[in-house]
Amino acid sequence: MSKIFWSPGLEQLEPYTPGEQPESKTLIKLNTNENPYPASPQALGLLKQYDFSDALRRYPDPESRELRRAIADKHKLTPEQVFVGNGSDEVLALSFYSFFRRREPLLFPDITYSFYPVYCQLFDIESRKIPLARDFSVQLQDYSAPAAGVIIPNPNAPTGRYLPLDEIEALLECQPQRVVIVDEAYIDFGGDSAITLINRYPNLLVIHTLSKSYALAGLRLGFAMGQKHLIQGLLRAKNSFNSYPIDAVAQRVATAAIRDTAWHADNCGKVIATRKRCEQTLAEIGFEVVPSQANFLLVKPPQPGAEAFNQALRKRDILVRYFNQPRISEYLRISIGTDAEMDQLIRNCKEILASQS
Ligand code: PMP
């Protein structure tokens, strides 16, 4: 059979595999940074009580107007400054496609969200990974090289390290004529959002998700915020792929979740309190703990090494995330669960350590 040629980027692409999603309900699942609590009762109540028959019979609002209005109101923006997609992964993909297919490389930290290199490969975008410092902090001075743009998660994943807003501003000033994306998937767990910089920086795009702090990973809803010209750029790409991006149910449920600000603040407070407690306890029993502003901790077990520790936890029905990649292969990423789940995790960690000595 003669060879069929297709996109060179696709030829070499290793399909991305997200963290394991087992069916079992008895496992303690701390491997994909999901929120351990049920979403806002306002949002979940809609699914139980609302009659969706008309909403599902008809096409959804192609512009997701109510949802964009709710997001804009919450973040003191206008709806024209908001773009919504099916999870922030889709918003990221459209952003890469719209802004970074240029002749220069896209810059991002060498340890970062593993989807970025996948999109570069898919869209034939060159990239340059900028090394992090030994303590995993971002080295700002290296971001002013000629570039197609910059993408940085804040807090970073999977390190959890956070860049304060003055450093984000410095980054925006390094590349005044290129799009700088700040992926704030985890910002609600303790950092200051760059949303407050949007009206001052025409090159800033901030991306959020309902998957983490809103406990709605299964709904698939993410959004980008930036000045109107950037949002227009995304709309051009989006409308060419799919003119009805968000389904009618997700639009309504997400709108209710965004409007329930009291639930959101309470949930973030609970996760942060649990993270702080675990940070301290894990350090006390000998783990090295990277400072985190996210809903996960990157930790280095004292013994027997991260891979073996991961296996030992797995045997005890606890799933965490092990990354077999340079610099972090000695570490495990542990998502913050409920207090009861984290107590079990810590008890099991102590037992594994005791079995080593
Ligand atoms: N950005 C970062 C930094 C993430 O860790 C994740 C979740 N894995 C995402 C974006 C994507 O989240 P979602 O597609 O669920 O909105």
Fold and architecture overview:
- With 357 residues, this protein is α/β, with parallel strands linked by helices.
- It folds into two domains: 20-38 and 262-356, Alpha-Beta Complex (Aspartate Aminotransferase, domain 1), CATH 3.90.1150; 41-259, Type I PLP-dependent aspartate aminotransferase-like (Major domain) (Aspartate Aminotransferase, domain 2).
- Helix content is 39%, strand content 14%.
- It has twelve helices and 13 strands.
- Strand 9 and strand 10 (296-300) form a beta hairpin.
- The longest helix has 24 residues, at 261-284.
Distance between the termini: 60 Å
Note the overall shape.
Answer: globular
Helix content: 25-40%
Instruction: Report the portion of residues in β strands.
Output: 5-15%
Question: For the residues shown, what is the average pLDDT?
Answer: 95
- Briefly, what CATH class of the largest domain? Alpha Beta
CATH topology of the largest domain: Aspartate Aminotransferase, domain 2
Tell me the domain tally: 2
- The counted number of beta strands is 13
- What is bound: which ligands? 4'-deoxy-4'-aminopyridoxal-5'-phosphate
CATH architecture of the largest domain: 3-Layer(aba) Sandwich
Count of helix runs? 12
Spatial strand arrangement across the major sheet: 2-8-7-6-5-3-4
User: How do the SSEs run, as a string of H and E?
Assistant: HEHHHEHEHEEHEEEHHHEEHEEEH
Report the uncertain regions.
none
- Structural class by secondary-structure content: alpha/beta
Structural Rg: 21 Å
Major sheet, described briefly? Answer: 7 strands, mixed
The CATH homologous superfamily of the largest domain corresponds to: Type I PLP-dependent aspartate aminotransferase-like (Major domain)
